[in-house]
Amino acid sequence: MSILDSLRPLPGLRVLVTAGASGIGAAIALAFRETGARVHVCDIDRAALDRLNRQAPEIGSSMADASLPDDVDLVFDDVQGTLGGLDVLVNNVGVAGPTGAIQDLRRGDWERTVAVNLNSQFYFAQRAVPLLRQSTQNPSLIAMSSVAGRLGYPLRTPYAATKWAVVGLMKSLAIELGPHGVRVNAILPGTVEGERMDGVIGARAAEQGVSAQAMRAQYLDKISLRRMVTPADVAAMALFLSSRAARNITGQAISVDGNMEYL
């Protein structure tokens, strides 16, 4: 096998992408589909699932709230029925959480951020690991963290805390699952172009009393390359981590962020 061939995931991989109907998740799901993978996604957004189904009807889907264990169980019932097993889990689900000084945050917002960003990672990993251990196709678990999982993030403490926790979970699972041939890594996207980032920038601008344009410029000034990343950039990293070229890469928190210097 040539090095170039090894850079492509094996065709026919069975892949589950959480929060896979839009944004980064959809970019990852569609990228795997292009490699010949059999892909299933779940999402809480019915309209987004319907759009993805019209675009790529061969991708299976489940509507689910990833923070609810019962919903996660139903997703795996669907995965067993449509894929018959699992070779790759991309644990992508997450929310931005509240923006504000810690003394002003509502406890419910904190608890929801933890439930979606962290608890869901546990629920999906717990159900996926037995299936990944049965795989003979270079099995891989990819956890979606954030550049906020390696840097402090003032006014976004719930988000940053959960994204640091995802990295800790990933590194621990890499050690736990390595003897079984299952690789575990985290992708840490930086500032990703799209509606979600527009909302984050708008909320932070309002909190600091500046325009959204000025806040966007502040974000770009913190990035060495002076540009945001795209969902396709993150999807390309997910494909690489699932390829044979990455067979000895595990326990790594890999940033895709243009070198975000600080937050």
UniProtKB/TrEMBL annotation:
This is SDR family oxidoreductase. It holds the Pfam family adh_short_C2. Keywords: Membrane, Oxidoreductase, Transmembrane, Transmembrane helix. GO terms for molecular function: oxidoreductase activity, acting on the CH-OH group of donors, NAD or NADP as acceptor. It comes from Xylophilus rhododendri. The keyword Repressor does not apply. SUPFAM superfamilies: NAD(P)-binding Rossmann-fold domains. PROSITE patterns: ADH_SHORT (PS00061). The chain crosses the membrane at residues 12-32. The keyword Metal-binding does not apply. It comes from the Bacteria. Belongs to the short-chain dehydrogenases/reductases (SDR) family.
